[in-house]
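Retro notes, structure queue

What went well: the backlog is down to a handful. What didn't: a couple of records were mislabeled last round, so from now on we paste the full input next to the output in the thread. Example, using Acetoin:2,6-dichlorophenolindophenol oxidoreductase subunit beta from Bacillus wiedmannii:
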Amino acid sequence: LRPIAELMFNDFIGSCLDQVLNQGAKFRYMFGGKAKVPVTVRTMHGAGFSAAAQHSQSLYALFTSIPGIKVVVPSTPYDAKGLLLAAIEDDDPVIFFEDKTLYNMKGEVPEEYYTIPLGKADIKRAGSDVTIVAIGKQVHTALAAAKQLSKKGLEVEVIDPRSLSPLDEDTILASVEKTNRLIVIDEANPRCSIATDIAAIVADKGFDLLDAPIKRITAPHTPVPFSPPLEKLYLPTPEKVIETVSEMIGDQSLLHV
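Corresponding output:
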């Protein structure tokens, strides 16, 4: 059997954390590779619907830090199908984070069976001036900003990791080698986050490639607010991305695209 569990909100995964953290994640290691735990857990995450603090979190960083668990965060319908089928085929437990604001998104999805390898990032937009690594729906935030910046002649490369554990470090580092600048967009809280982790990896393995300090665009370190205006301020936006790129490049004219 390859069971698929559905947990409506990732906010409530604490109710079964022992089974995930101390059982599913450990068995293959505890039994010398003889045990398999091919379980896929689908769960919703993300803010944007004014669902307040207990229904809007993005907790994927918590599980990325646990050895033995694979973590997937798709951003498009095509990726969602291919990654989900790959997760089901995998012999390790996989937590499949689905941003609730993307459920109505339309896109081309082949009818035939296909998989996308876990641990393989996708370059959603090629560019030569700045690398942006974005998680989940923030890929679309990055793409919207990149489209505007292109009008000023600045080309942004947008990378979607797709899976956070395993993480495709090679694609990220190769992009930074080309652009010499890195911004990471993650709507989760900043402390001990995916944004912090990716920034640390590049600082450690690609410091000499950088022409400017790495920038992170995240939510503040507070719970998600219920108020729609406050929630809008809480999340990354294309405007925040453009402002960050302008600061990094040292070109204030980019603010007027």
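Agreed that this is the format going forward. Reviewer comment attached to the example: The chain is about 35% helix and 20% strand.
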